[in-house]
Amino acid sequence: MKKTEIVFATNNLHKLKEVQQAVGNKIILLSLKDINFKGEIPETQDTIEGNSKQKVEYIFERYNIPCFADDTGLIIDSLNGEPGVYSARYAGEACSFKDNCDKVLRNLAKKKDRKARFKTVISFMDQHGIKTFEGVVEGTILEEYKGSDGFGYDPIFKPVGYNETFAEMTTELKNEISHRGLAVKKLLLFLESYLP
User: Fold this and answer.
1) Whole-prediction pTM value?
2) What is the DSSP secondary structure assignment for residue 91, as one 8-state letter?
3) Which residues share a beta bridge with 135?
4) Cα–Cα–Cα angle for 90, 45, 21, nearest 5°?
5) Residue environment code for 156-191, b if the CB has 16+ CB neighbours within 10 A, otherwise e
6) What topology is assigned to 4-194 in CATH?
7) What is the spatial distance between Cα 98 and Cα 113, in angstroms, rounded to a whole number?
8) Is the dihedral of CA 167, 168, 169, 171 positive or negative?
9) Which of 73, 147, 150, 177 has a 20 to 30 A CA-CA distance from 184?
10) CB-CB contact of 99 with 63 (8 Å)
11) What local confidence, expressed as pLDDT, does residue 24 receive?
12) What digits encode the pLDDT tens for the residues 103-143?
């Protein structure tokens, strides 16, 4: 299979690296920087699916190149689904990963139910339209940070069936079982049929 270039509409280099590892060398992923996109892609929808589609439409309409975008949310039952679509900016617009984790831990301080799930929706768009791929992983929010790898909420999220957080896992294991990993697998299966 010849190598195909596809844009991954993200400025998050952690995500780009994670997904490039998962797709291997069949596909060259271009970042927004690689296509000279500057600025912000709007994320004004009230669902993870909606944001994912909005991002990919925004880039495809401007560059007319096959591309995909993802949106991910951490959904915590006892916080009525928060942070959800606001996961990246839960503690404010210019917040750090740690700020977000600290806010979750504060909000869960007096709650017994710490069940949560990560949900990723990847939208892929080309001249034929949009396809979406979803990955969900169930888990619990710990009471303290564990591990130093990963990013985002990884140090406080322990997936069901494992004794370590995403931040304690190897990238290979995380890619195998994570919400983004599961959605990427579905995307790759689709791309197998899409590529020449």
Assistant:
1) 0.87
2) T
3) 120
4) 70
5) bbbbeeeeebbbbbebeebbebbbbbbbbebbbeeb
6) Maf protein (3.90.950)
7) 22
8) positive
9) 147
10) no
11) 76
12) 999 999 999 999 999 999 999 999 999 999 999 999 999 99
Of the candidates 14, 27, 61, the one whose C-alpha atom is nearest the C-alpha of residue 187 is 27
Report the pLDDT value the prediction gives residue 194, as an integer from 0 to 100: 63
Cβ contact 41:10 at 8 Å: no
Catalytic center residues: 71
Structure tokens at 48: 């993870």
Residue linked to tokens 């993870």: 48
Task: Provide, rounded to the nearest whole percent, the portion of the chain with pLDDT above 90.
Answer: 72
Distances (CA, A) of 145 to 122, 148, 163: 28, 9, 13
> Among 12, 159, 9, which residue's Cα sits nearest to residue 74?
159
Structure tokens at 151: 């990013």
CB 91 within 8 A of CB 100: yes
Cis amide linkage into residue 66, ω under 30° from 0:
no
DSSP annotation of 79 reads G
Q: What are residue 83's DSSP bridge partners? A: 75
| CA distance linking residue 146 with residue 166, whole number of Å | 9
Percent of the chain with pLDDT over 70: 97
